[in-house]
From TrEMBL:
It is found in: Nucleus. It comes from Ceriporiopsis subvermispora (strain B) (White-rot fungus). The lineage of its organism: Eukaryota, Fungi, Dikarya, Basidiomycota, Agaricomycotina. Its main location: nucleus. Residues 301-310, 322-331 have a biased composition (Polar residues). This is General transcription and DNA repair factor IIH subunit TFB4. GO terms for molecular function: zinc ion binding. Keywords: DNA damage, DNA repair, Metal-binding, Nucleus, Transcription, Transcription regulation, Zinc, Zinc-finger.
Amino acid sequence: MDKASHLSVVIDLSPTQWHLCSQSSNPHPLPLQLFLSQLLAFFNSHIACKDENSLAVFGAFPGKSILLYSSTTIAAEEHSVNADANTYRPFKILDSTIMDSIRDQLEALELLEAEAPIGLVGAITKSLCYINRLTIPSSSTTRAGEQAVPLDPRILIFSVSPDQSSSYIPIMNSIFSAQKLKVTIDVCKIYGSDSVFLQQAAHLTGGSYLHLDRPDALLQYLTMSFLPPPGIRQLLSVPTQDKIDFRAACFCHKRIVDIGFVCSVCLSIFCNPVPVCSTCRTKFPIKTLQRLNASRPLPMSNATATSSVPRSPAVQDALRNGTPTQNNGSK
């Protein structure tokens, strides 16, 4: 608990998803402007908890990811802000830097760029690299005779976009890197269905996955669930995941599958049995492929249709005896 806490925040800033989230047809709409105002209050609370706490904010925009704010860079201190006697200057610098960066990036987006896949994986990777630089400082970043302050790093992801099946492998690589660096990944799902990949990220790194029932009460969720660092959470009752979706995406079509076939050599996942692994080029015996195809369960639609259609006595006798029947036009 005596360690300083570093918080890297990844914000999903998809214009399309935030437009859907702010619609009045939703039970509890949350506009982007209201989300950012509550989020900045959470950032200020994190900085105020301990003098040594640090913060880095990454924005996941369509097709790219950008560092919006870093409390360890000199550029943040040189940011010119108007003096205000009623505002604490570090909070003012933080708020203005993040808001100006987000506004500039959103205004620079063109119509076609706004529909590009969100750069969530790039933002997570950059946050891990940033944490690795803080936890293992080089001789150039550490002054002579100065000892590095031990950190308790964690990543908090705000998600509003659905899963991208093509990003399964990069996200899993990021999860394994976070496990090696002992970085906790927390996920706050604000809008949309549950994210399969982010559920696995929170579970495998010991973090919390929270799907908000009331997005308009975001600040209360953040203060009670995500403000305490992992060291203090052992003494608190933080939300836990009731169920975790461990499905994976196949390597052939990049689709999330319920039943997959794994290569015994490189552990690649396929939605159908393949004679040759496309990753390691391993060839599988024909008998193995036949056995796997025979063991596949029938689709639910076909099984339901077969069981729901009434059969005539002649058809039932044919099925029991294994003899073919002829359709004589009777129904």
